[in-house]
Amino acid sequence: MAGVAVASLVALLPATAAAQTATADPSSTRCPPETPSAAPPPPAGARLPDVPPILCQDEVNRETPPLGADDPSLQQPLESVGDFENRLKSAETTPGSVAPSADPELAQPLPPLSQFDVREVELAQPAQGEKPAELRYATRIEGLDAADAQTEIDLAGEYKGLSALREGKGKAANEAMLSARLTEDSKLVERILHAEGWYDAKVTTRIDRTTTAADGQPVTAVLLVAPGERYKLGTIIVHADPTVPPRLIDDNLALKIGEPIVAQRIQGAEANVAIVLPQKGYPFATVGQRDVLLDPETHLGDYVLPVTLGPRARFGGFRTTGDLAFDAHHVEVLSRFKRGQLYDSRQVDDLRQALVATGLFTTVAVAPERTGQTNPDRTETVTMLVTQDAGPPRTLAASAGYGTGEGFRVEGSWTHRNLFPPEGALVTTAVAGTQEQGASAIFRRSNAGKRDRTFQFGLEALRSRYDAFSALTGRLFTRLSYDSTPIWRKTFTWAVGAEILGTVESDYNFALGERDKRKFLIGGVSGQLGIDRTDSLLDPTKGFRAQILVQPEGALHDGFRPYVRSQLDGSVYYPVADKIVVAGRVRVGTTLGIDRFDLAPSRRFYAGGGGSVRGFGFQQLGPKDPDNRPLGGLSLTEAAAEVRYRFGNFGVVGFVDMGQVYEKRVPDFSGLRTGVGIGGRYYTSLGPLRVDVATPLGRRPGESRFNVYVSIGQAF
User: Fold this and answer.
1) In terms of domains, do 222 and 261 share one?
2) Are residues 256 and 366 in the same domain?
3) Which of 225, 363, 452, 466 has its CA 20 to 30 A from that of 266?
4) Same domain flag for 287 and 321
């Protein structure tokens, strides 16, 4: 068998090879002849390739040079390890010396520095006025329209907003930069499509050179989009313990089988579950990492979400730690939830905001703490742990301003917000202005036994010099109020107070025909009740407000004279469009039981100015004395209407104000004066910054053509 196999292999050789082997000249080689092969000769006429002669070993040895011909040391025997180490030691140089160099050039001394030829290197700079070369390009994306038509978002818009090609504004330094941007954009489009459920999407790119930058036309960077099939939810599985109520997770996850697998939609649904569970009694609930298994054949995804509920809980007591501004009892006063109430994270967030609003903390945190105490309904009682880091309690503040009719005014204050804990503040204030100077000291207890209930007791001295009257007043007062705040707006608010004041005031005395100075001792109480059904404290857009103030008082001046001052305010807000609100307000005031001259000028009604009737100066409406100074009145009426248009953080307002002050005890709504104007608004987190410009209609001598008003918050 072996012989047959060899014969067969030789038979497959080309004929020229066999012929060359058979006709080789024996004299062309010095090698001894080899033993003839036992294989049969190739067939006659076979063509064999030319094969160069193979050298025999003797010829190889004869033609190869000896190993040590170039380096005789290679033929020497190797030295011993000991001799080698001794030779290295003897060659070592002393410290600081330089080993001898084998290069003669390196052994030569350096030339002196004076002979050194120093030439400044000149860097290549673009010629004067020469612009660097740039590649202009256009961008085109194909194949995205089909996917874009199936989504609620604008895929093309998403791409344009993030595109590196579009950010380059059609200019690149070279084609390499253009290619890099094109690659980056292709990955961007794939990410956008993946986020909307096209997980098989592929984007290829090319640079279309049908036009070139050489003839002034840009090349085109092209993205070719192949979205593929959109994946949808095939199954939805939530691994969680039973909840109360039973479908709490399913109803708030709000994912449906068959809907596209949209990343933002799924993340939003999971976030909603993470928010709702703590609001419904599960303070320690956590949403785990989702798992979505995609099937490329059916284009369906199996969605699995693990949720760890933890115990269902009810509010218990309070515990506080850290650098304390006040104790746990006052923390409980600020809370709006009761012990035993089902846990609700919204109530915890409200407590945290109330703590921050005290202004007494650098940082403050509120978190539930497990107690292990089980209630009869199998819920667990949790303690609210408040970690306090008390901040500086003292504040220095200053403000300055100018108002038409009020002049310049500078006010400074020093406040210790927690001088008498908890939240017992001392506020001292000084005022200096062209028409008003004074000082005051007020004790204020915020959250006095109840959230947002404030007690105040104060003493103030004030010197006023207005067109209407001049006064030097000392006042002692107290007030207890329950007010709305930006954190917690209340439907009903109230306030009660009492005051006693002594004042020396001067106004025009018609009997004497000149301004006359008189002394008054006034005491009284006050009561205020308000209702608020609007959607914002500083910038309402819908709803209504109403407030009534009643002040029974008595004055000692040439005898005792009791009287009652009352004022009613109301406003309404209606959104006629998404960005347009129509607003209106009215104010009516009366004084019963006294004549105008017997009433101290500072207790009369006045109108005009930014918080009253715009278009007129401060207190300038109503009866005037012979010197054209306002006298004030026993009653007043005011009304205003606004159209408010908001765009982004800015707004424009057009308004009409009207009002009048009357000598009568009850207004008769005659002789109303009107002002019209326009205003600008800049909306901040604290409320809109207001700038209004108004002019009076039927302007009379002495009245300003324009009046400007600046304030925080809407006019009403």
Assistant:
1) no
2) no
3) 225
4) no
Per-residue pLDDT at 452? 95
CATH number reported for the structural domain that contains residue 368 in this entry: 3.10.20.310
pLDDT tens for each residue of 113-129:
666 665 665 655 655 65
Domain count, the chain: 4
Same domain, 564 and 685: yes
**Would you say residue 1 has pLDDT above 50?**
no
Tell me how far apart the alpha carbons of residues 716 and 713 are, in angstroms, rounded to a whole number: 8
Q: Give the CB-side neighbour count of residue 234, counting CA atoms within 13 A.
A: 14
d(CA 328, CA 385): 9
CA separation for the pair 131, 123 (Å, rounded) = 17
Q: Is residue 579 domain-shared with residue 687, that is, in the same domain?
A: yes
Retrieve residue 286's tokens.
Answer: 């956590």
pLDDT at 22: 36
Q: pTM value?
A: 0.72
H helix runs in 168-219, sequence order: 175-195
Residue 159 covered by a domain: yes
Residue 106 is predicted with a pLDDT of 63
Q: pLDDT averaged over the chain?
A: 86
Domain around 288: 232-308
Measured in degrees and rounded to the nearest 5, phi and psi for residue 166 equal: -75, -30
**Are residues 387 and 322 in contact, defined by beta-carbon separation less than 8 angstroms?**
yes
> For residue 623, what is the domain's CATH number?
2.40.160.50
pLDDT digits 0-9 by tens, 463-501? 999 888 999 999 999 999 999 998 888 999 999 999 999
Cβ atoms of 341 and 301 within 8 Å: the answer is no
